[in-house]
Inverse folding.
């Protein structure tokens, strides 16, 4: 596999990333007889679930559903302990996958690709690592995730803070905040998990909130005796039910719209789903993401819940999202989130009303002059979603065109979420232009890897060297993605959502994930394939 002329590793496919998608890609392609090498920055497999090891880290899809489709034997073997998987359980699960299928032997860990250049004459990608190694591959499979590049803090002067700064996406195993005064910036999914976890151990927790989120209780619990056995007995059917569900995971959606029922019934629906917990809450009515009045009714319900749980009026008020519909910013599920603000050792500071003016040696000073002191500052400030993992690498396609130039100014453009024009054989796995984060990621990834595996087999059988797309095809697909999003409330309101790139200063704002669901997406892919890969250019 080593090419002595160039001193590089030469393979059919280079897979970047060792999370759910990278592991599946290596497994599939190796099984189909392709030579394949995976690379991963981390020292181990896991991807998102390797890095995000902050206290409270947990997935918002149920364990039994947030697991791979391609090893039914593992479904029977693996013993999930809780309804929703904690980071350490998911990491253990991904490690088990790697061990069982002996995937580590095809990965180079602690290896970061910094540059990838397409050589048209040879139909080959030449990818270089931070430490000067080189890979040459016909295909470049970007299994890099959507939320893997943390964003920088957009308030200047953080270096002036004299205490420790901890980042949730790279949490040190030996961090111990017991008895400390801690500040947290960020109240997205990550903040909503780390805040309740830290509140229990620190002396004083100060939450610096800019935009409140709608937070639904997770109601996580241990799986009851026999419960997992019942699921295992019907696993194939369960997998198929998820595969054919809009969001890649079955949800028992109500058949009604919010105003099909009277006020009391509507409230009872919300109450029942609030008690049940989890993202099922969003299925309370058909039209919650389509009709503003319906959405207002659910927002009002959550506001009432906040008032019931948080005794301090001004704090309860500051926790209520008002500038966007529920769901326009990714809905959050968490345990005891609002309850945490009823604790004596937790203070909510509204940095929208009174913005951070400066970091000081001891904490932060707000525009009003108020100061808050901490020993440690925790950053849960989110990610440069969808584009960050691509623009961070110097990717150059046909004629030396830089991917970062177009994706940083126009946003990510792909045909069917798979290929971007002028970057032949670079295959995007479950990223922009596909259901990705609006679906159960594991289902979305499964669809992508199957399609990519089938594509490579087809190209090998037909003796084809490259797959590209046209500007027209990708513009048309970007328009479809935009049009579908515009049918919903997702792109509305002032949410600062990372779905639209609003969370990163200067980022182009287009709706990036495909909101039509995994079934419709799969149909688009199938239709293209049946029509000789319509919209793609195979050469
Ligand atoms: P998110 O959802 O992007 O949340 C980041 C949070 O950080 C959000 O509350 C931001 O407020 C806040 N933030 C960022 N910069 C600042 C500054 N300068 N001051 C105050 N607050 C700030 O990221 P998460 O990691 O929580 O979740 C990402 C996804 O991972 C999640 O949706 C799941 O899919 C898994 P803002 O809203 O920008 O005002």
């Amino acid at each position: 596999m080593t090419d002595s002329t160039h001193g590089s590793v030469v393979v059919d496919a280079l897979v970047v990333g060792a999370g759910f998608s990278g592991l599946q890609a290596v497994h599939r392609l190796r099984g189909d007889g392709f030579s394949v090498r995976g690379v991963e920055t981390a020292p181990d497999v896991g991807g998102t679930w390797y890095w995000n090891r902050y206290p409270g880290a947990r997935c918002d899809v149920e364990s039994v559903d947030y697991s791979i489709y391609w090893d039914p034997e593992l479904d029977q073997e693996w013993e999930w302990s809780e309804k929703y998987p904690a980071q350490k359980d998911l990491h253990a699960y991904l490690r088990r996958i790697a061990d069982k299928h002996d995937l580590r032997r095809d990965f180079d860990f602690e290896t970061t690709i910094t540059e990838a250049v397409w050589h048209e004459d040879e139909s080959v990608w030449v990818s270089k690592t931070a430490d000067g190694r080189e890979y040459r591959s016909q295909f470049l499979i970007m299994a890099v995730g959507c939320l893997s590049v943390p964003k920088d803090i957009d308030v200047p002067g953080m270096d002036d803070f004299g205490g420790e700064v901890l980042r949730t996406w790279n949490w040190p195993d030996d961090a111990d905040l017991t008895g400390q005064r801690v500040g947290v910036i960020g109240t997205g999914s990550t903040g909503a998990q780390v805040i309740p976890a830290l509140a229990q151990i620190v002396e004083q927790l100060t939450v610096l909130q800019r935009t409140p989120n709608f937070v639904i209780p997770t109601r996580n619990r241990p799986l009851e005796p026999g419960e997992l056995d019942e699921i295992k007995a019907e696993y194939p059917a369960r997998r198929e039910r998820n595969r054919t569900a809009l969001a890649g995971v079955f949800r028992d959606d109500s058949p009604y719209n919010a105003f099909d029922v009277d006020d009391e019934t509507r409230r009872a629906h919300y109450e029942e789903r609030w008690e049940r917990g989890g993202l099922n809450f969003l299925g309370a009515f058909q039209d919650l993401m389509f009709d503003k009045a319906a959405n207002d009714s659910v927002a009002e319900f959550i506001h009432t819940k906040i008032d019931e749980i948080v005794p301090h009026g001004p704090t309860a008020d500051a926790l209520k999202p008002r500038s966007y519909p529920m769901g326009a910013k990714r809905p959050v599920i968490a345990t005891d989130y609002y309850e945490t603000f009823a604790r004596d050792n937790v203070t909510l500071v509204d940095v929208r009303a009174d913005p951070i003016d400066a970091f000081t040696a001891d904490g932060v000073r707000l525009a009003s002059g108020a100061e808050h002191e901490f020993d440690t500052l925790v950053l849960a400030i989110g990610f440069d979603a969808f584009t960050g993992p691509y623009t961070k690498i110097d990717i150059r396609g046909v004629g030396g065109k830089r991917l970062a130039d177009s994706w940083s100014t126009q946003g990510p453009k792909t045909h069917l979420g798979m290929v971007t024009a002028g970057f032949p054989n670079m295959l995007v796995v479950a990223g922009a232009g596909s259901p990705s984060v609006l679906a159960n990621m594991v289902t979305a990834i499964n669809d992508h890897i199957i399609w990519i595996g089938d594509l490579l087999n087809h190209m090998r059988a037909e003796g084809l060297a490259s797959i590209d797309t046209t500007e027209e095809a990708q513009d048309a697909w970007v328009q479809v993605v935009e049009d579908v999003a515009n049918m919903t409330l997702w792109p509305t309101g002032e949410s600062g959502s990372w779905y639209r790139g609003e969370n990163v200063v200067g980022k182009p704002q287009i709706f990036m994930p495909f909101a039509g669901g995994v079934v419709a997406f799969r149909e688009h892919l199938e239709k293209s394939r049946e029509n000789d890969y319509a919209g793609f250019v195979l050469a």
